């Protein structure tokens, strides 16, 4: 079975450096040493898992001053290893130097008009984050900016925009389910969460009413491929569901 990973970070020093003051908190959150790997080792990890990955750029320079893991960096990584990295998500920060806002704020309309006009998809995180988790004030990160209802508003405003919600969206998983069911232009990838911790209602919807909406993502290297793929297998879905989640939905919606 083909496996397309829609949410794979480079895991190299460029990516680690881009996280600035959050590095220590992320290591604690994920319970592992948060250190860089060489490009060769990252490629080997992805190949060994039998995965075709979509890389994710990372840019929080506006709030931390950390150097971004740039769009050109992930694009070059993709181009050097086309059999391993089949595409890449670019990171866009339209308000560098200004306060972060929710994605459905009208001030961002020109950005999403441009994205929709280019007929390219956008990926938006939902739910809690390891960024600043456990630190005083979460280092300023506000979870309300990642509520799924912001995606609902955005999808209603831009019906031609294909939106991929990233992560299970906890503690608003039911809210994200409602958005995915209601908005035909919203899809959902479940990276950054061990499958054994998926809520019961989400497990049911993956094989039921959301089977043509769900896609696979890992959040590599946050979760090792060995664990996340094993736990997906342990959920007990039949092959028709796994085919949709791991490749067919991404092929149909994103042309991968």
Secondary-structure topology with pairs:
Layout: E1 4-8, H1 13-18, H2 23-30, H3 39-48, E2 52-56, H4 61-64, H5 71-80, E3 85-89, H6 109-117, E4 122-125, H7 148-157, E5 163-166, H8 173-182, E6 186-189, H9 200-207, E7 214-215, H10 225-234, H11 239-254
Parallel strand pairs: 1-2, 2-3, 4-5, 5-6, 6-7
Give a written overview of the molecule.
The protein has helices at 13-18, 23-30, 39-48, 61-64, 71-80, 109-117, 148-157, 173-182, 200-207, 225-234, 239-254, and strands at 4-8, 52-56, 85-89, 122-125, 163-166, 186-189, 214-215. The chain has a single domain, classed as Alpha-Beta Barrel (TIM Barrel), CATH 3.20.20.140. The strands form two sheets. The protein has a four-stranded parallel β-sheet. It is α/β, with parallel strands linked by helices and 256 residues long. Helices cover 39% and strands 11% of the residues. Helix 7 (148-157) runs parallel beside helix 8 (173-182). It has eleven helices and seven strands.
Which characteristics define this entry?
256 residues, 11 helices, 39% helix, globular, 3-stranded parallel β-sheet, alpha/beta
Quick gist of this model?
The chain is an alpha/beta fold. The protein contains 11 helices and 7 strands.
CATH topology: TIM Barrel
Beta strands, count: 7
Q: What's the number of helices?
A: 11
Looking at the structure, what is the overall shape?
Answer: globular
Give the uncertain stretches in residue-range form: none
Helix content: 25-40%
Give the topology string: H per helix, E per strand. Answer: EHHHEHHEHEHEHEHEHH
């Amino acid at each position: 079975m083909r496996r397309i990973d829609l949410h794979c970070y480079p895991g190299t020093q460029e990516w680690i450096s881009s996280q600035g003051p959050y590095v220590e908190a992320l290591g604690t959150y994920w319970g592992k040493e948060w250190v860089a790997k060489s490009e060769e080792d990252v490629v080997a990890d992805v190949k060994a898992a039998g995965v075709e990955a979509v890389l994710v750029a990372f840019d929080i320079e506006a709030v931390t001053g950390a150097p971004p893991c740039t769009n050109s960096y992930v694009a070059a990584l993709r181009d050097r290893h086309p059999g391993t990295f089949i595409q890449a998500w670019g990171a866009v920060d339209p308000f560098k130097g200004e306060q972060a806002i929710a994605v459905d704020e009208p001030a961002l309309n020109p950005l999403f008009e441009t994205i929709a006009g280019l007929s390219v998809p956008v990926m938006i995180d939902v739910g809690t984050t390891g960024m600043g988790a456990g630190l005083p004030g979460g280092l300023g990160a506000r979870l309300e900016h990642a509520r799924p209802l912001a995606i609902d508003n955005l999808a209603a405003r831009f019906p031609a925009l294909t939106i991929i919600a990233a992560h299970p969206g906890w503690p608003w998983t039911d809210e994200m389910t409602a958005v995915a069911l209601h908005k035909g232009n919203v899809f959902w990838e479940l990276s950054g969460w061990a499958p054994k911790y998926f809520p019961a209602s989400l497990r049911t919807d993956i094989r039921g009413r959301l089977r043509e909406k769900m896609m696979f993502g890992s959040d590599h290297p946050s979760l090792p491929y060995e664990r996340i793929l094993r736990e997906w297998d342990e959920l007990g879905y039949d092959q028709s569901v796994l085919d949709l989640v791991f490749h067919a939905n991404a092929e149909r919606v994103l042309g991968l």
